[in-house]
Amino acid sequence: MTGALATPHALASEAGMQAYRDGGNAIDAAIVAAAVLTVVYPHNVALGGDLIALVRTPDGEVRCVNASGWTGAATDVGKLRAGNGKWLPIRGAESVTVPGGVRGWEALRGFGARLSWARTLAPAESAASNGVPVAPSLASHITDPENADLFGSEDFDRVFAPSGRSLRVGDLFTQPALADSFAALRDGGPDTFYQGGIAERCISYLRSRGSWLTVEDFADFEAEVVEPISTPFRGLTVLTSPPNTHGLLLLRALRAVDELPITDPLGAGLGTLMRVFHRSNALRASHVGDPRFVEVDVSALMKDGLDVLEELGAAANGPTAVPHGDTVGVSAADSDGYVVSLIQSVYHAFGSGLIDPETGILFHNRGTSFALDSDSPNVIAPRKRPLHTLMPVMTLEEREPRHVLSTMGGQGQPQILAQILLGALDGAGAESAVAAPRAVVGLQTDGATVDSVTIESNLSTMARDSIQRSGLTPIDVAPHTEALGHANVIVIDADGTLAAASDPRSDGAAVVAHYPRRVEP
């Protein structure tokens, strides 16, 4: 069998490829890699975070696993407004929703995983117990002034400055408490995270910090398996996750490229594409939320305003703090027809900043995405999921997979994936499409506004001029800055040939390899 895998950290890619060697498929490889990433990339992902994924099975069907966690049943929006004013806090217990990631792994495994649960978690347990070298991205975030609110806090310093100084590139990074949690998960299965010993300890810890989450909030949570949303584009079907995620923004942009039409969307037409996304950002803020609580007309939003270019100055839905860290994307595919685009996250770098000393689990801050404005579709409410930036993507041609796309990048994820896909369809190879310079409109980097476009300085003159003409304000950043995402891509030719690429903006690796099938005695 041939297996392909692309992740933002080389050790995660190595562990996932070992899953193929051991007889696993793309589902196994993706989950193994994701679990290792919770150990080696804690500024981006943790056991205490969410997951959203697309999985394609050999019968040609594609499903979306939505394992984004909900708020507690005791959530009181009035008290939150009284205590916080206009916006929820970025850090702390009020920003923590039930972490959905482990239930997400469980749901994904149900679509045909071949390795045991214990085997799947073993590499992550080993990495936490034995330690791994600190990667450059992690080291930079440990000392980044943007995370200064965490410096000196008991939880942060215990994990990331264990000897009285901050961990540096190459230092051995061990997490014995997290290793013990993986051992408990290995033995007890996913339920121990939501109903067993890990759940009890996590809830006790969170409530000691002021959380309203309860035993029932964890025990009742299940991942949701739903149909993806899609649009036809250049002979392909492009699929992504529905609301409560913002995947529809990608589909809306692809429709705009066809319908406006936008000639040369990565060159002379890039400014127009950025204007389309500018409008999309406003639609996300005003119309997208948890569909269990509010109606979200995906079809209408995908074509809203495509015949006009809107005025600038759309309001942002939330505080202007920009996430630094955010997310990991894992892309996996195999010659048996299993394909996975998996996105997992803690949201801002190091999430809520809360790390339970007994379990070693770092908790995300996805709850800070909620609004406190009662008129917002994303207003916080009991057992509600927040508007989510995670959005896995894949394409099919007559039900056969062609592209597997995943990225970090916060509010810019639809824009990053659109540019990579357009580049690939214009003939760029996987590596070139991922490495190409990017532009993202909105609150993407420090100093950006809703009306600015963050552009890598090696963007072509033609593309740069088109942004200037669009009326949006360009902000230059260095080439290959991780602020514009860590993307991971697999391209599958019509003859089944696999090519993979990991973003040079990350510490990742992409591998394609063939392994003899294991024959059981």
UniProtKB/TrEMBL annotation:
Pfam families: G_glu_transpept (PF01019)
Highest taxon of source: Bacteria
InterPro entries: GGT-like_enzyme, GGT_ssub_C, Ntn_hydrolases_N
Name of the protein this chain belongs to: Gamma-glutamyltranspeptidase
Species, as recorded: Mycolicibacterium agri (Mycobacterium agri)
